[in-house]
Amino acid sequence: MAAGGGRNAPVCGGEHGYRAPQHDGMRRDGGGEPYWSRPECRVWTAVLLLGTCLLYCARVTVPICAVALSAHFGWDKKQSGVVLSSFFWGYCLTQVIGGHISDQIGGEKVLLLSASAWGFLTFITPLLTQITSAHLVFMTCSRFLMGLLQGVYFPSLASLLSQRVRESERAFTYSTVGTGSQFGTLVIGAAGSLLLDWYGWESVFYFSGLLTLLWVYCTCKYLLTEKDLVIPIDYLMRSISISKQNKVPWKQLFKKAPIWAVIVAQLCTASTFFTLLSWLPTFFKETFPESKVSTGGGRRAGLPALLSESGVVFCAGLATPCCWAGGGALPLGVAVPVAVVAAPPPPSAAPVRSGQIPASF
């Protein structure tokens, strides 16, 4: 999606000659380095961390309210599962296109456009359920659309940081911003559960949607100028077609073992994480029926996110030195799961040798 290096930095070796796409929005003044200064980087890191937090606040509204929604609309487990899973059908469709458009027009524009859309959708969801009787169809379509809108976030984030953050600081910055996913799960698990207990499930949607819209407004007002928010027509036309110079060498990429390692790792991580994210509130409510919804569901469901916070930042701090040392991130990727996973590996798991991954990756 987004290039991994700075301006004109090859991402998969000099032999392929692929270079990161550039756009004029990378420089406000038309000259100098494209990277943020240290103060700018700190501010943007905090802002994007908050944005990622709000992303997950909006994403987890339905899982937190799943028991209340099922009781309110008379859904069974199968119908609840349809609503919960519909998000991911939309989420997987906009990943590639989101990264490509971000490379052309700027990741910050795509981030703010999508955030304003999903924030507004989250805010009006309780209102729209009052004007339709097909609640299951509406909530399924709403979650599918939410997935489409949020699917561009992390590709846009990768595009933005790859163009504006120095390579030596990129891994730590991206991981710091990424911890917002755990913070968001904790916030909505605690505050959302209290709102659910005190004011009903509608308040959780209002809370999450309003905070997202407020974040978009403040970011546009204080960090971006009017010129930054304009998307020229030629950028849109360039985002439709990829020039030969910037064409991604997919064939060469998919021949690399590290690419498949990342794909498999992401598949395993996401399938486990999102299953827990979607069903833990319901599980705790049904397993501890004597507890209130706030105590038995949302708060306990945030425990995995709480434990993962330190690991994310710690591993990111080690990843960049490992890569710069020439050994790649493989030793870190092997050592960390062994250290934190309590269960033994399955008998069919084959050991991974460091020599299987090229040093360039």
TrEMBL record:
Protein name: Major facilitator superfamily (MFS) profile domain-containing protein
Gene coding for it: LOC100546979
Record's subcellular location: Membrane
Membrane topology designation: Multi-pass membrane protein
Primary location class: membrane
Alphabetized Gene3D superfamilies for the sequence: MFS general substrate transporter like domains
CC terms in the record's Gene Ontology section: membrane
Annotated keywords: Membrane, Transmembrane, Transmembrane helix
Domain of life, source organism: Eukaryota
GO MF annotation terms: transmembrane transporter activity
Positions of the UniProt region annotated as Disordered: 1-31
Transmembrane segments: 43-69, 81-98, 110-129, 136-154, 174-196, 203-224, 259-280
Record GO biological process: ATP transport
Feature: compositional bias, Basic and acidic residues: 16-31
Keyword Mitochondrion: no
Residue stretches making up the Major facilitator superfamily (MFS) profile domain: 44-361
Species per Swiss-Prot/TrEMBL record: Meleagris gallopavo (Wild turkey)
KW Transmembrane helix (keyword) present: yes
